[in-house]
Amino acid sequence: MRDGYGLSRGADASSPARVRDVADFQNRWAEFRPFAARALRGPVLSPEEADTLAWMIEVMDRIGARDVADAPPRGEEGDCRP
Q1: Cβ–Cβ < 8 Å for 8, 15
Q2: 5, CA 20 to 30 Å: which among 18, 19, 24, 52?
Q3: Can you tell me the distance from the alpha carbon of 44 to that of 52, in angstroms, rounded to the nearest whole number?
Q4: How far apart are CA 7 and CA 9, in angstroms?
Q5: Cα–Cα distance between 64 and 56 in angstroms, integer?
Q6: Residue 1's pLDDT band (boundaries 50, 70, 90)?
Q7: Which residues of 2-37 are buried (b: 16+ CB within 10 A; e: fewer)?
Q8: Alpha-carbon distance 74 to 67, whole Å?
Q9: What pLDDT is attached to residue 31?
Q10: Average pLDDT of 2-26?
Q11: CA-based angle 32:36:23, to the nearest 5?
Q12: C-alpha–C-alpha distance, residues 32 and 30, integer Å
């Protein structure tokens, strides 16, 4: 599980698991996609969780570096946080 700073619990700041922001996550999507795909194939997800994860994978597969680079700063227009 990741904390609010993009660190895996138990990982330190120099860990390769650290994700700095959404652009870093997108740039490293090829590294993270196999984990998401494995989780999707696993037996522990509810049907709703599996559907959500499948959509997340599909969306991430379509996002490119240009899409993230043009994103407005956090908290401004386009922030989809509740």
Answers
A1: yes
A2: 52
A3: 14
A4: 6
A5: 14
A6: very low
A7: eeeebbeeeeeeeeeeebeeeeebbeebeeeeeeee
A8: 15
A9: 93
A10: 66
A11: 40
A12: 6
CB 42 within 8 A of CB 50: no
Angstrom CA distances, 63 to 18, 55, 69, 81, stand at 20, 12, 11, 18
Phi and psi dihedrals of 33, rounded to 5?
-55, -45
The string of pLDDT tens digits covering residues 34-81 is 999 999 999 999 999 999 999 999 999 998 877 777 656 666 555 555
DSSP string, 3-37: -TTSPBTT--TT-TT---SHHHHHHTHHHHHHHHH
